[in-house]
Amino acid sequence: MPGVINPSNIPSIQVGGITITNLSTTKTLVGFISGAAAGNSTLRLPGAGAGYAVTVGKTLRVQCIYSQGVATGGQLQFGYADNDVGDATNTAFTNPVRYSSADNKSPVVLIASAKNEIAVIFDIPAGKFPMITNGAAGTVSSVQVFGYEF
């Protein structure tokens, strides 16, 4: 996968300036959004049919977000919600909380027609569903999120 590298023989990956060395506990979650009609996605383990819910009694610490968009100037919102809306749908999230926003209204990560690697530290509580949504009507993006539960 372009943009994700293994810097040495140590089992690790580096994304967005973060080197993740404990791959046995790393969670990789994926999602896709496609414009206004399919602008919400609950992130899921690769190949899973349902959205990922953080394990009871645990917290998911997200360390980095890797996205690739197809439209310059698109916007991506990342966070968590109480419900699984599926992948690339227009179903609304329940009680969404978004990354880096005191008011949970308009936090965005700008994406362009290139790969974007963003280092973050964002904790998602037990039972919540990591999610992405488009911040602009025409945003199309595939996303991978890397983190671990503790």
Note the topology.
Blueprint: E1 13-15, E2 18-20, E3 26-34, E4 40-42, E5 60-69, E6 74-81, E7 97-98, E8 109-111, E9 115-124, E10 129-134, E11 140-149
Antiparallel strand pairs: 1-2, 3-11, 4-10, 5-9, 5-11, 6-7, 6-8, 6-10
What does this molecule look like?
The protein is mainly beta and 150 residues long. The chain has no helices and eleven strands. The strands form three sheets. Strands 4, 6, 7, 8 and 10 form a five-stranded antiparallel β-sheet that branches. Strands 3-11-5-9 form a four-stranded antiparallel β-sheet, with no helix packed on it. Strands 1-2 form a two-stranded antiparallel ribbon.
Task: Note the main attributes of this structure.
150 residues, 0% helix, five-stranded antiparallel sheet, mainly beta
Question: How much beta, percentage-wise?
Answer: 35-45%
SS summary, helix count: 0
Described by strand count, sense and barrel closure, the largest sheet is: 5 strands, antiparallel
Mean model confidence by pLDDT: 80
Describe the global form. Answer: globular
Poorly predicted sequence stretches spanning 5 or more consecutive residues: 102-107
- Percent helix, as a range, is under 10%
Distance from first to last alpha carbon? 27 Å
> Radius of gyration, rounded?
14 Å
Computed structural class: mainly beta
**SSE succession:** EEEEEEEEEEE
